[in-house]
């Protein structure tokens, strides 16, 4: 009799009732935590947050609320945060150490081998001429944080593998460091050091590899399937010899900028190129701006044809999805529950981006089908209270 009167489990609630409950939760943070109890609620969490360099999260779906901000719990107050996709933050600490943190669960994985090689990268900077300068800079993260362009995480492909973290650092050229991400207490391994790439503009994981996009629209694939080394490197500064590994799957087009000027005139320029996976396809998105005020005026979407080794213009929509673009983090999400189909949500920094009339710089929503722009924030959005040098990035709460 008792078994017949068992209460229904949370996952058994019908979607329409789940929607009513979600509407009564005060913030998106509460909704994400609720997913730990009721997995179907994740389908209502499509619209991402905005993440700032101080660990502040902004609830974009609830931007007109009096307090749409959320501070990541357990985050060190002196750490620099970089959105690394999904729930992950890459943390750079003042002493030069770094770690990977799940911003929702609080789980943190130190990356001592990666930090050691990043320190060597700093020591290789030509502007640090004296021993005293080196000693002062090596144990500080402030200089390095200005040079970190992007961090991506490749999830483990099997139970025996470990996630991979890749850090793109720019100085006079670019260096890409790729390391395993094992639990605390286990030794990680630096797998790839990809250098001498002056014009790298973006990196993205795709089908188990890391793809590197150049300013001249060349595409290189880095193989990182070998996630284990026979002899793990100890946690000490070991410099990986500078090398350029990988297979170039699409050749560079050095004359592309000149061709763009001839086609579109001198008043328009491609300011950014993004690399993002969507529906099993690897896309390059070109962002056009007007030279007079440096604001976005158009987007072009191209698909990588890895068989023919060329870019194909992507006609039509995004197969029921939307793209979220920012330099630190980009992702494709299915439409619905606040996410508009065939749209590009973009975060783009102005020269002076924290202006009252433009709290998020040159950011907005572009409809591919209608070819028009709409604001990203509602008119009733409260003042953005943070003071942090790093422009915001997308943050995608997927798992608790």
From TrEMBL:
Residues 10-46 form the F-box domain. InterPro entries: F-box-like_dom_sf, F-box_dom, KIB1-4_b-propeller. It comes from the Eukaryota. Residues 76-367 form the KIB1-4 beta-propeller domain. This is F-box domain-containing protein. It comes from Lolium multiflorum.
């Amino acid at each position: 009799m008792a078994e017949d009167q068992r209460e229904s489990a949370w996952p058994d609630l019908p979607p329409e009732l789940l929607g009513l409950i979600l509407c009564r939760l005060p913030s998106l943070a509460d909704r994400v935590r609720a997913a730990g109890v009721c997995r179907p609620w994740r389908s209502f969490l499509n619209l991402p947050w905005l993440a700032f360099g101080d660990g502040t999260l902004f609830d974009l779906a609830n931007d007109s609320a009096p307090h749409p901000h959320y501070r990541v719990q357990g985050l060190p107050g002196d750490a620099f945060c970089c959105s690394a996709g999904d729930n992950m933050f890459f943390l750079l600490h003042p002493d030069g150490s770094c770690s990977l943190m799940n911003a929702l669960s609080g789980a943190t994985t130190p990356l001592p081998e990666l930090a050691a090689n990043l320190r060597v990268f700093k020591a290789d900077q030509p502007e640090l001429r004296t021993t005293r300068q080196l000693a002062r800079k090596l144990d500080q993260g402030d200089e390095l944080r200005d040079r970190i362009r992007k961090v991506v995480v490749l999830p483990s492909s099997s139970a025996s593998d470990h996630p991979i973290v890749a850090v793109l650092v720019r100085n006079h050229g670019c260096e890409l460091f790729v390391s395993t991400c094992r639990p605390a207490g286990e030794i990680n391994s630096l797998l790839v050091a990809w250098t001498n790439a002056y014009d790298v503009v973006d990196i993205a994981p795709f089908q188990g590899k890391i793809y590197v996009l150049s300013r001249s629209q060349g595409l290189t694939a880095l193989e990182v399937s070998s996630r284990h080394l026979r002899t793990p490197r100890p946690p000490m500064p070991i410099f990986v010899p500078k090398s350029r590994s990988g297979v170039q799957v699409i050749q560079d087009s050095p004359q592309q900028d000149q061709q763009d000027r001839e086609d579109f005139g001198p008043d328009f320029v491609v300011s950014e190129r993004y690399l993002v996976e969507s529906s099993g396809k690897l896309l390059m998105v070109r962002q056009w701006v007007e030279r007079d005020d440096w604001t976005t005026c158009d987007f072009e979407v191209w698909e990588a044809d890895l068989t023919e080794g060329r870019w194909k213009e992507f006609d039509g929509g995004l197969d029921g999805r939307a793209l979220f673009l920012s330099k630190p983090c980009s992702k494709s999400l299915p439409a619905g529950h606040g996410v508009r189909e065939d749209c590009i949500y973009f975060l783009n920094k102005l020269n002076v981006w924290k202006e009252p009339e433009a709290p998020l710089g040159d950011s907005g929503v572009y409809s591919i089908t209608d070819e028009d722009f709409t604001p990203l924030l509602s008119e009733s959005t409260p003042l953005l209270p943070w003071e942090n040098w790093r422009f915001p990035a997308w943050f995608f709460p997927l798992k608790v």
